[in-house]
Amino acid sequence: MIKKSLFLVALFVLLFHNFTKAQTLIKGKVLNNDNQPLAFTTVALLKLPDSTLVKGIYTNDEGLYEFEKVNKGNYLVKVQAVGLGKRNSISFVISEEQKEFLVADIRYEKSSQDLKEVEISVTKPLVEFKNGSTILNIDGTALAAGNSAYDVLKRAPGVTLDNNNNIAIQGKQGVKVMIDGRLQHLTPDQLANMLKSMGAESLDKIEIMKNPSSKYDAEGTAGIINIKTKKAKLIGFNGTVRGGINRGELWGGNGGLSLNYKGEKFSVFGAIDANQRNRYIITNLDRKVSTGTPDEIVFNQNNTEVQTNTSENYKLGADWFVNDKTTLGFVYDGGTGKNLSDGKNITHISGNNTVGFDHLVSLSYNPNVFYNNNINLNGVHKLDSNNSQIDFSLDYTNYIDNAKNKYSNRFYDVNDLEVNSMFPNIYNNNTVSNIDIYLGALNFTKKLTKKLNLESGLKYSQVQTINSLLFERKDTLSENFYNDIRFSNDFKYTEQVSAGYFNLQREIPHGSLQIGLRGEHTLAQGFNITSNSKINRNYFQLFPNLSLDWGKSVQHKFQLSYSRRINRPNYFQLNPFKYYLDQYTLSEGNPFLNPEKSSNASITYIFKQFLYNTISYQRTTDVMQQFTTQNDTTKETKQVTRNITASNNYAYNIFAYLPIKKWWTAQLSISAWYMDFEGSIDGKVYKRGKPSWQANLTNEFVLPKDVTIELSGQYTSSLLWGIFQLQQQGSLDIGIKKAFWNKKATLLIGITDVFYTDRTRVGVQFENQNLKFSQWNDTRRGRITFTYNFGNTKLKLRETNTNTEEKNRIRKN
Can you spell out the DSSP letters for 150-164? Predict the structure, then answer.
């Protein structure tokens, strides 16, 4: 691994050296007919005489653009603004001695002439940084083809997922996930199942918000990940059909169809996706247990498991553009899926064996069926011509998870014969979870003055979960199953959050300032129906937010932000159920958990819009931390979540966008952090800390004949999370994409985790525990994916006295 680290560092130094060679900087500005800057306008640098495209970028908020590393030659700048057509600069010559060239302002004049159809063809970078957020653009990339949303999320900069599907950003857990702006109130496993059932081809982008503004829920001490799906963007009828197969140890496949129609007064869109995800998983767990003598008893567990995931996802929606000011919308989406896990676990006993058998064979058969349905009503009404508006959203979500797990434990001697004195331990875990979520939100935006904007709103959400566990044990004499009331349980959890917020955004010289405050009142109750016991939570919290963007030029910019956030325990963590993996391994909920709170601060320096440096600090109190405990008498290892006093996270991130050659673009992200934990566990002082780092490198090679190669790799060093020591892991992915039929069709062939190094390894050495865990998922997979876009692929806009409404419709969808 040291060689791999040195290789990544050497590669970065080489790329950075090549990039910073002295060459000409070309810059300019794009304005409208009122001399106001045109932001997010497409700008292309063309080399004459054949108008070869050299580079393409967007203007920033001030209408400015810059082209760096330009060689000598004759050039032309071409601009294309949505709804306004195209404009060209006069041609100019760059000599070898010039360090900088200023292009005359490109201005759009008023014209009464109707616009013809224009084709928008802009390639976004895979990773972008905007307003303190990291944006991973998925649509049309090799990363999307043949993968699931879960696969893509694992490769996002700074994001890690452990073997329990807990999500972390730069080592910090407490991340909340939203899909199209809806917070997902699911357990880590349920969320993972949902993301695995979502084909990445249906995604538009993933937003990683470390310090979200007060407009967003305060939930998530480490931030929010918002997964955005594709929506209709084009006037007229269009659609996409896609299909693919993939192969690792087992076969998998996916297919989908999306249809869109958008007119002047309404739009209708729908999509359906089907996925078959088969995986072969190998897990090893080694534990040493004290026996009161110098010799320990050693448990070596080897588990082989075949997982089959089949799912169907669907969406149907419509928007009605009532008039130039009012739009109403409706969306229904959902999915069904079945996860089938068939495993065999063999536990060998060595050392001072006092348990009476040589090895234990545990068989598990776990069919899990889930249903997810969402209904959304939304609307927006513009109050004036200064983008003041009011919007609302009403949501209802129902999620049902039904698992009927079967376990069989049998004991064998050294001759592989069943031990007659030990009866088989056979039991069933039948669990049903029913989640209902009701949500209503009202937002108001007002431009108070030319430089001051106000955002405010109200939100109410109610979550109700009903969970039942029927633990049936097989009687060894009658061979009938009976309800073991020691483990069967029923648990109901309700949570109501009422919130209000405001944000003030003020333009200041060379930048902008945002101040926000959010208040949330939480009323929650956990009711253990079996034991007739209740646990109530009733509290009010304030969550301030502050951000500052400042820079005298596009070459040097700074971003500062501060926020306070909360992470409430989910019902799975509060649920007192016991779940057995085998005879000696189980997990249990903790109904006495308190929410954790965090304060987050960061500062970012941006150099020439290609190099981003961020330093951040997070202090979290009442940290909800997973622990394992070991009973030396029963030999059981139990996983449970508890609160400890606090944790600190000091982090640094560097991101570089490197246009090395006209045909070669690289993006490099390196994060380094130090995390420590402090508190007490079972009355003993606990204080640990460790530095860690992660690197992501993505290369895109644009070749002749519409061929693109994407090569990406990621590496995460060892890191600490409470008592768990996670070992280093990494992967390398490659994809080759070919466009044809006038770029309406795409064929992609790729391999994920080429060297089969994306494996999870965890160690624990704490109190009486000494265990090592490792897991190999079926991550090395070959993929072939075909995508075809049909229908209208051009955007037709008509010129009006003001084109604000048309632009907003495009952005909305």
Answer: HHHHHTSTTEEE-TT
Whole-angstrom CA distances from 272 to 198, 242, 314, 344 are 10, 11, 4, 35
User: DSSP label at 89?
Assistant: P
DSSP letter string, 578-611:
EEEEETTEEEE--TT---EEEEEEEEEEEETTTE
Residue with tokens 């045109």: 38
3 Cβ contact partners less than 8 Å away, ≥ 6 residues apart: none
The per-residue pLDDT for 145 is 58
The answer to whether 298 touches 270, Cβ cutoff 8 Å, is: no
Residue identified by tokens 């987050």 is 600
**Which residues, including other chains, have CB under 8 Å from residue 80's CB and lie 6 or more apart?**
41, 42, 44, 86, 87, 118, 120
The C-alpha atoms of residue 461 and residue 477 are separated, in whole angstroms, by 51
| Consecutive H or E run containing 467 | strand 452-474
pLDDT at 24: 86
Cα separations in angstroms, 576 against 426, 527, 572, 579, 728:
22, 10, 8, 10, 33
Q: What is the DSSP letter of 116?
A: -
The long-range contacts involving 551-554, CB below 8 angstroms and separated by at least 24 positions, are 551/510, 551/511, 551/606, 552/510, 554/27, 554/60, 554/62, 554/64, 554/66, 554/608, 554/609
pLDDT of residue 170: 63
Q: Which residues pair with 58 in a beta bridge?
A: 42
CB 443 within 8 Å of CB 391: yes
**3-state class percentages of the chain: helix first, strand second, coil last, to nearest 5:** 5, 65, 30
Question: What is the identity of the amino acid at 608?
Answer: K
DSSP 625-667: EEEEEE-TTT--EEEEEEEEEEEEEEEEEEEEEEEEETTEEEE
3-class DSSP assignment, residue 409: strand
Question: What's the pLDDT at 753?
Answer: 92
Q: What is the dihedral of CA 33, 36, 37, 39, to 10 degrees?
A: -90
Q: What is the reported pLDDT for 162?
A: 57
Q: Are 352 and 346 in contact (CB under 8 A)?
A: no
- Rounded to an integer, what distance in angstroms lies between the CA atom of residue 343 and that of residue 163? 16
Nearest to 70 by CA among 42, 87, 93: 93
Specify the pairing of strand 637-661 against strand 585-588. Answer: parallel
783: helix, coil or strand?
strand
Amino acid (one-letter) located at 165: N
CA distance 50 to 798: 31
Q: How far apart are CA 208 and CA 175, in angstroms?
A: 10
| C-alpha span between 455 and 738 (Å, rounded) | 45
What pLDDT was estimated at residue 199?
A: 66
Between CA 132 and CA 208 the distance in angstroms is 9
The rounded radius of gyration (Å) of the Cα atoms in the chain is 28
User: What number of other Cβ atoms are within 10 A of residue 42's Cβ?
Assistant: 19
pLDDT attached to residue 744: 80
Q: Helix or strand or coil: residue 336?
A: strand
Instruction: Report d(CA 641, CA 593) in Å as an integer.
Output: 8
The parts of the chain modelled with pLDDT lower than 50 are: 1-22, 110-123, 793-813
pLDDT, residue 187, reads 65
In contact, 396 and 412? CB cutoff 8 Å: no
Beta bridge partners of 498: 460, 521
Which residues lie closer than 8 Å to 121 by C-beta, 6 or more apart?
Answer: none
Containing 811, the helix (H) or strand (E) segment is helix 804-812
- pLDDT at position 792: 64
Output DSSP code: residue 195.
H
The pTM score is 0.73
